[in-house]
Write a structure and sequence with these properties.
Layout lengths: L19 E2 L7 E6 L7 H21 L3 E7 H6 L1 H9 L1 H4 L1 E8 L10 H9 L13 E5 L6 H5 L5 E6 L3 E3 L23 H9 L10 H4 L2 H9 L12 E3 L1 H9 L15 E4 L2 H6 L2 H7 L5 E6 L4 E6 L4 H13 L8
Helix pairs in contact: 1-13
Length: 331
């Protein structure tokens, strides 16, 4: 198999395979791993599912980064199996649509009145694709099966970010431990008051009661608005990934109709995009994400770029994979 990284592949130690690292890149790390999309063998899919699960746990433990997960809508439309799962579990995934663009992709052209009339009169299956920007869905919730279900078709992107949200208001002060007061007798006959009293934790007086945290409405606040309802001092957080992604990757389309309403812009980057740009420009990309992982049909494999040195994490995870008998089939 030919390697897509033209600047050369560093002869990695065997304990880093199947990842190949681009040599000559100084300010960030760039890796490529071969994969067969759409016709991915079961053994390859199983290996990748287990690897990415362990990789995510290692990233969370060592770098404290948040995972953001995306799926290209074009792949969803073209793949009946995952499309069916997507719509069945729509309420669990909480997908948010945004724009998906390759690096130098021209903005979609505006449809003229004449073209609209031609489209309306057409008796064939005319397509509006030339006039509609490509989309991606950000899955706000995983439901524990995102990579298992959607990986292997050439449309998945994973981002790991250290600052994808920020507090909407200043954090409230930590409250000191207080003594749990006894419940007055006249209130004990009310079941709700008894539940509230039992849920009160004197060591964390600012924590939201359990009965309220588990309420469906509060769960919606957690998943859709990013409110931290599980900590001792719940603080609303606002998403900043969307704004930063539009600032860095939306220069070509900032004047387009609907730009202000876009939730985000997800770049579809290849190995050559990382290698052909000035490194000072690439560093701006890492203001949006710390780690970029994409199924890249153009590269016939995974593109993994990071402002961190991922080799120690790769070696740690790959060692556990080998100990458990997992072997990556490159095909």
């Amino acid at each position: 198999m030919s390697y897509p990284i033209e600047k050369g592949i560093e002869q990695e130690r065997p304990d880093c395979l199947p990842f190949r690292r681009a040599e000559g890149v100084q300010t960030f790390s760039l890796f490529w791993m071969p994969a067969r999309f759409k016709t991915m063998p079961d053994a390859q899919r199983e290996w990748l599912s287990i690897f990415f699960l362990r990789f995510e746990l290692a990233i969370s433990r060592t770098l404290k980064l948040e995972k953001l997960q995306f799926m290209h809508s074009k792949i969803l439309r073209e793949t009946a199996d995952i499309q069916e799962v997507f719509y069945k579990k729509l309420h669990r995934y909480s997908p948010v649509p945004g724009q998906s663009r390759s690096l130098n992709q021209e903005p979609v052209k505006k449809i003229t009145p004449e073209e609209m009339k031609t489209f309306a009169r057409s008796r064939k299956n005319a397509s509006l694709d030339p006039f509609v920007a490509e989309r991606a869905f950000r899955f706000r919730r995983d439901d524990g099966d995102f990579t298992k279900v959607f990986m292997g078709y050439g449309g998945m992107t994973l981002l790991f970010c250290g600052n994808s949200s920020e507090e909407l208001f200043p954090s409230p002060p930590q409250l000191a431990t207080i003594q749990k007061p006894p419940m007055p007798k006249f209130l004990r006959k009310y079941s709700m008051m008894e539940t509230m009293h039992n849920d009160f934790d004197p060591h964390a007086p600012g924590r939201m009661p359990a009965w309220l945290r588990t309420h469906p409405s509060m769960q919606r606040l957690k998943t859709e608005l990013g409110v931290d309802i599980d900590s001792d001092n719940a603080v609303p957080r606002v998403d900043t990934f969307g704004t930063k992604s539009k600032e860095v990757f939306g220069e070509e389309v900032k004047g387009a109709v609907g730009f202000e309403g876009l939730a985000f812009i997800l770049p579809r980057l290849t190995t050559q995009d990382f290698l052909s740009q000035l490194e000072e420009d690439v560093r701006k990309w890492f203001d949006v994400f710390d780690i970029y992982i994409r199924e890249s049909p153009e590269d016939e494999g995974f593109v993994i770029a990071s402002k961190h040195d991922l080799r120690p994490i790769f070696r740690e995870v790959l060692e556990t994979m080998r100990e458990d008998g997992y072997v990556y089939w490159e095909g």
